Amino acid sequence: GNSVTQMEGPVTLSEEAFLTINCTYTATGYPSLFWYVQYPGEGLQLLLKATKADDKGSNKGFEATYRKETTSFHLEKGSVQVSDSAVYFCALSDDNFNKFYFGSGTKLNVKP
Amino acid sequence: NAGVMQNPRHLVRRRGQEARLRCSPMKGHSHVYWYRQLPEEGLKFMVYLQKENIIDESGMPKERFSAEFPKEGPSILRIQQVVRGDSAAYFCASSPPSPSGSAYNEQFFGPGTRLTVL
Predict the structure, then answer these.
(1) Which long-range contacts (CB under 8 A, 24 or more apart) does A46-51 make?
(2) Residues B25-42: b if buried by 16+ CB within 10 A, e if exposed
(3) CA distance B93 to B43
(4) Nearest CA of chain B to the CA of A57: how many Å?
(5) Number of CB pairs < 8 Å for A and B?
(6) At the N or C end, where does chain B have fewer CB atoms within 10 A?
(7) Min Cα–Cα distance to chain A from B18, Å
(8) Helix (H, G, I), strand (E, B) or coil at A82
(9) Does the pLDDT of residue B9 top 60, yes or no?
């Protein structure tokens, strides 16, 4: 079956620190991989995506590379800001893109 | 273009009552998805609907839960005889019809309805 595992939080960093949030997955077929961000009181927003192996998704300084050999899609950012404080969800979709499977979320706190 | 709208944002019910959650998809979107997020957990898929059709309800509990997306009006997630374990955040997402030749269709999420069962 399909599932996503991501590192537990909360993760607390100082501003301008390097961020890594680990995500690994189990899937049948050829899934697409996503990172979503949830700010307090809001719904999820798509942050970036990758639809096939070795693709790199990037947006707003965040990056993640679809690694089929290690079944991973780790999220990275070189220099975090206070405004990046949110909950980050790793997700995969099935071949038909009709069903998403989410990890449990990682809360990121960035301190000035 | 307004985003996905959900109401109410917060809903409190006593055990045994009914809960109705509404979702208005983005303009032009004909696909609706419902997800449930239990405390400290990720979102779990519940059901996928198109106008007047349930496409995939593999994530819906077998009893007390139902969903519809009528030709006119919002999609409704209905929970009958609520229990404390139904307390969660319920998110709706919508997507447009798939472009010809394209498999991927981004889902846009609403702000969620937080249901509390006393």
Answers:
(1) A46/B106, A46/B107, A46/B108, A47/A75, A47/A88, A49/B106, A51/B104
(2) bbeebebbbbbbbeeeeb
(3) 12
(4) 14
(5) 58
(6) N
(7) 24
(8) helix
(9) yes
DSSP one-letter code for B80? -
Total residues belonging to chain A:
112
Dig out the tokens for A2 from the structure: 């399909």
- Within 8 A of A100 by CB-CB distance, chain B residues are 33, 35, 43, 45, 107
B69-92 pLDDT, tens per residue? 999 999 999 999 999 999 999 999
- Which tokens sit at B112? 């969620």
Q: Does A29 touch chain B (CB under 8 A)?
A: no
pLDDT of residue B41: 79
The rounded distance, in Å, linking the Cα atoms of A57 and A12 is 24
Q: For residue A102, give both structure tokens.
A: 């989410």
* CA closest to B10 among chain A residues: A41
